[in-house]
Specification:
Helix content: 25-40%
Strand content: 15-25%
Distance between the termini: 32 Å
Strand order of the largest sheet: 13-8-1-6-5-4-3-16-17-18
Structural class: alpha+beta
CATH architecture of the largest domain: 2-Layer Sandwich
Number of strands: 18
Radius of gyration: 22 Å
Number of helices: 14
Length: 497
């Protein structure tokens, strides 16, 4: 049976600094330091000892492949909700804690947005050199530079990586029809000089390879980074880089939920006798993003054609059968599994009948509806700069400036749930132990990362507590133990027994 699809989202936020030093790296550092010192009054450093982004799931890095750089000198902190908050290249990045299912992922992704808002407010209060900060949950700067929204899924090591690539590629190419964030114009040469007024996805045009290790150049549809942050003999972590940053909760939920289901089907070898395969997945990905009608025929490897909707319907029907035969324990149980399937099927039906009916659920449709209304009122061509400015303002996290916040899109999680997620970790993964220890003994935890905590007990040597299983260290496993432990030394003594 498929293992539980522990999942998470890493979001690189766009940042703009007006006045004073405009350097985005320095600005990102100010944001994170302001949150640490002004809002939560603590900062626990990240432990880089186990970082290995150059490991390639194909066994050896291919010629020309370059592993991502690790910038250990930049601000990098761990929060009491189990998340990581840090500077990645020139962006503030928030990585959710490990979540048990797509709905929990939505909750902690929204918590990340709230943490960024509080960071901006704190930085504005603390800086006295005239700088003001704007943060955007989007994926490109309009000048040819893209930054990512990466997902992570726990996958059994026993599944051959080639099988994952073959079976997940058609999903990644086509899921943008409900997971795309929408975009005015184009920034690359992906469309061979064709004019593009509006796209479904912000990220699609930046992908150039089917499979590869890189994340910033020659971006691949399937990333081969083999860094499980867990027991490598049992687990993989599929590092997914094709997704857009979503503000609509339904879009985020579907993006993560459908992918978790597809990966479960792959683990249980339930993807059908002949997996779908595109003749040219990269060109297909670009074509799907450009096609607002959702009717473009895409060339398949066997010579046939299919639309993005056809592919998604095929995967949906396989997933329904899979749920009947195998259950949905791997994606959060019956309630979450049923919600994924109901939403998936309902959205595909609406996309087939009238995509604009989904303006309250999907980002690319919500944004298109907003822009088309403005265009009609002011008789604007798509090339008008005001539309590009509105595109950016859609993603602005500042409440007074955000166009998205005025649209009243459907919610799946409450404000109260998001507020709790800002402070407390998920109860069903090892993030509980990480967050609970940081909350209770912040001065004793020297560093932390996904699979370990390092304690200073006031005497040499430092003590490292490994957490190699994402499903251990949960509230059920350790909450009572933590309550009985009066000091970190007491906790480690009890753990050793």
């Amino acid at each position: 049976m498929a293992i539980e699809k522990v999942c998470g989202i890493e979001t690189e936020y766009g940042i703009q600094v007006v006045g004073g030093d405009p350097n985005p790296i320095a600005g990102s550092s100010v944001l994170i330091n302001a949150y640490a010192h002004e809002v939560v009054h603590r900062r626990t450093a990240w432990d880089f000892d186990d970082e290995s982004p150059g490991n390639d799931a194909r066994g050896e890095a291919q010629p020309g492949a370059m592993p991502p750089a690790i910038e250990t000198h930049l601000v990098n902190s761990v929060l009491t909700n189990g998340a990581r908050y840090y500077v990645d290249h020139a962006h503030p990045e928030f990585s959710t804690p490990e979540c048990l299912d797509a709905l929990e992922c939505v909750r902690y992704d929204r918590a990340g947005e709230e943490i960024l808002r509080r960071s901006v407010e704190a930085a504005d209060r603390l800086t006295h050199d005239g700088r003001r900060f704007s943060v955007y949950k989007n994926n490109s700067d309009g000048k040819g530079n893209s930054y990512g929204c990466h997902e992570n899924y726990l996958v059994a090591r026993s599944v051959p990586f080639d099988r994952i690539v073959t079976s997940v590629t058609p999903h990644f190419v086509t899921r943008q029809i409900y997971a795309g964030a929408g975009k005015v114009g184009a920034e690359t040469a992906a469309f061979d000089g064709q004019r593009v007024d509006y796209q479904i996805s912000q990220r699609a045009e930046f992908f150039e390879e089917r499979v590869g290790l890189e994340t910033t150049l020659k971006r691949p549809i399937v990333n081969t980074r083999d860094e499980p942050h867990a027991d490598p003999s049992r687990y993989r972590r599929l590092h997914v880089i094709v997704g857009d940053s979503n503000l609509c909760e339904v879009a985020t939920f579907l993006k993560v939920g459908t992918t978790a289901l597809v990966l479960s089907m792959i683990e249980d070898d339930a993807t059908g006798p002949r997996p779908l395969d595109f003749a040219d997945p990269v060109r297909a990905m670009h074509a799907v993003s450009q096609d607002l009608t959702l009717r473009r025929a895409l060339r398949m490897a066997d010579g046939s054609t299919a639309t993005a909707l056809d592919v998604q319907w095929h995967l949906y029907e396989l997933a329904r059968k899979y749920a009947m035969d195998h259950g949905t324990a791997s994606v959060g149980g019956a309630d979450v599994g049923t919600l994924i399937l109901d939403r998936w099927g309902g959205v595909l039906e609406a996309l087939e009948a009238d995509p604009m009916s989904l303006a309250g659920q999907l980002d690319w449709v919500a944004k298109l509806h907003l822009l088309e209304g403005y265009r009609a009122r002011h008789d604007l061509a798509w090339q008008d700069r005001r539309l590009a400015a509105m595109d950016l303002q859609y993603h602005d996290l500042r409440p007074a400036r955000s166009l998205f916040s005025r649209l009243g899109t459907e919610r799946l999680v409450s404000d109260e749930e998001v507020a709790r997620a800002v402070e407390t970790p998920p109860r069903g993964t090892r993030a509980w132990f990480r967050g609970a220890c940081l909350a209770r003994w912040p001065d004793a935890v020297v560093t932390a990362n996904w699979d370990s905590l390092v304690f200073d007990l006031g005497q040499d040597p430092l003590r490292r507590v490994p957490m190699m299983d994402p499903l251990r260290g949960t509230a059920d496993h350790v909450e009572e133990l933590l309550q009985k432990s009066s000091t970190p030394a007491d906790l480690l003594s009890r753990l050793s027994q």
